[in-house]
Structures are given as C-alpha cells and as structure tokens.
Design a protein that fits this description.
Elements: H1 5-17, H2 25-48, H3 52-64, H4 75-105
Helix pairs in contact: 1-2, 1-4, 2-3
C-alpha cells in the first residue's frame, strides 16, 4: 500500500485542530473541503481494491463532511462526530495496512 496513510493523517490532524476554540469559521469550511476530498480519495481507493466495507465507510464520511450540501449540527454534535471520525480514520490506517500486508504474503 503506497503511502495511503498520508491523506488520513492530514484529515486526523485537521480534525484534532478543529477542537482549538480560536479557529475562525473559515477553518471549518477548509476542514470540510479537505476531509471530503480525503474521504472521496480513500473511497475510490477502496473501490479499486474491491473493498466494499471501506467504500461505504469513507463514502458516508465524505458525504458528512462535504462542503457543498452542508449538514448542520451543533458544536457538541460535531465534536462527537469528529472524535468518531478520528478513531475510524486512525483505525483504517492500521486495518488497511494489515489487509495490504496479508495480500502481499499470499
């Protein structure tokens, strides 16, 4: 697996930085744009690997963070969504690497 962890790491770092209370509103628009792009990329990568579960996971996250048709949640709900997204994205780094390593061994 070629450096698939880089886009995930970018999304995770941006989601963590979203907890800084001094962020301007524009940061959250940028966060939506970057996260949506990252999750779309990862969804397409999962499609190319024929990994249906990850296609759905990343696809739903791309829809959730899309900057065009915004999903409006209050700050507390976004905090919960961000934490879940961080953990799922972090888990995907390791799970996709394990899956990739197992395919190499076969």
């Amino acid at each position: 697996m070629r450096k698939i962890w880089i886009p995930q790491t970018i999304a995770i770092l941006m989601l963590i930085w979203a907890y800084y209370p001094g962020n301007p509103y524009g940061y959250y628009n940028l966060l939506r744009l970057i996260c949506c792009a990252v999750f779309l990329y990862l969804s397409v990568s999962a499609y190319n690997r024929k990994d249906n579960n990850w296609i759905w996971v990343f696809g739903v996250m791309a829809i959730l963070y899309n900057p065009f048709i915004k999903i409006y949640l209050n700050r507390e709900m976004w905090s919960i969504v961000n934490i879940i997204t961080i953990f799922v994205t972090l888990a995907s780094i390791f799970l996709l690497k394990l899956k990739s390593d197992n395919k190499v061994e076969e």
